[in-house]
User: Fold this.
Amino acid sequence: MTAALAVAVLVGSPGAASASKDPYAAAERRAAAPCPQPLPPAVPPSPSECGAPSPGAAGLGDPYFEGAGNGGYDVAHYDVALAYAGAGTGSVDATVTVTATATQDLSAFDLDFRGPQITAVAVDGREARHRRAGRELVILPAAPIRAGRTFRVAVRYAGRPEPVGDRTLGSYGWVPSRDGAVVASEPDGASTWLPVNDHPRDKATYAFHITVPKDLRAVANGRPGPVRTGGATATYEWAEDAPMASYLATVAIGRFQVRRTEVAGVPVITAVDPAFRSAAKGLETTTVKVMKWAAPLFGPYPFATAGGIVDDPKLGYALETQERPIYGGFAPDEGFIVHEMAHQWFGDSVGLRVWSDIWLNEGFATYAEWLWRERTGKDSAAKIFKRYYAQPASSPIFSPPPGAPGAAKMFGFSVYVRGAMTLQALRDRVGDRAFFTILRTWTAQHRHSTATTQQFTALAERVSGQGLTPLFQAWLRSETKPLSW
Ligand code: ARG
Ligand code: ZN
Assistant:
């Protein structure tokens, strides 16, 4: 789902998105613009854009992840039917059905996929030719797909998915655990286990049907459905009904202690690996406390359910997987839980349109930790800011600038710390009233959608009535430690 694209199509005007500085807007306008009607022979339409159907682009052009995502269609829904054989082989047998709408006349299109062996691909029920090229799965439907048509792609595959191993990012994607597996895909690991349009700007809903050996369980995003048992297996249903970025999709398979409670009618479901049994109660109570605390500050909790998953792989990080964050191999302290819960508003509901805006996720979630410490009155975000500000200009908390960290440092200290400092600098400038109005307007305006830094700075200027370009320039973009703001 892409709101801007939907608007452009509805309005029917290729100029609808032209005010935006968004690097994707031009490509979208091109995709959304209707082909010209037959013209006088002197001005033939460009054959690459009109006339013959053409292949969708192999990437969305994100500067940090060139091949991530694909052009020519927009996904609405993933149906994931996956059977897991057990920790012995670690293998899966899966059929993923992708429902998408073409945004151009398509002769072929790609999905991102680096999972195991594909055994069949069908488009609208008809077998389709396909080939794999690196991380791309190229699909050639039996007949071209016209722009505006909704189509279904079913991909069946089997084997043992492998995680990505990265020197800075660690292990991510489908990660084997002692008794099963757990998925944590940020930034581009969803394709380790799913054929997917793997870019945060194409949110979609998900249905999971996960079959596991009877002694195991499967937990995923969203709302649980009935558990069906048959012979030696059990099938767990989960549904994520709010639009979700692919990197936030998760499944955790294994033995878990599951607890259920609720906050204001929102079910809170936590699942904790037996190795972290003693953390189970604390995860639940802190998650509940944070939800109650956050709503007045950030706006209503944005999803139908909440919770958390603690599993055993020593990932060394947590991930804000939608409705149910993953804590990878440690018992999370309050700060971690506050951080991942804050991401439900900042990162999950209000998602990224480009990866280079990652501070919109990490700076905000880190600032939420500071606000949490402020709530008791013993510390304050302003004091925490001052302690960081006292560090030397050469400290990694200051560089690279969080507004343009580069792919290699997108999860570096500066994105988290200087990103959060940016928000404190903004709060100091505009005052508490305007600052928290900005936060709540942000989460309301872009709820279940995506947004950009430029939209945030414009909103901050509008709400505060102040010119804030120098402040954001100094904090987000300047190569040096900001001197004044
Ligand atoms: N978003 C996560 C957090 O808030 C970080 C994920 C980093 N990804 C990785 N593969 N290490 O902490
Ligand atoms: Zn984070």
User: Anything to note?
Assistant: The longest strand covers residues 73-84. The chain is about 25% helix and 30% strand. The CA atoms of residues 52 and 439 lie 47 Å apart.
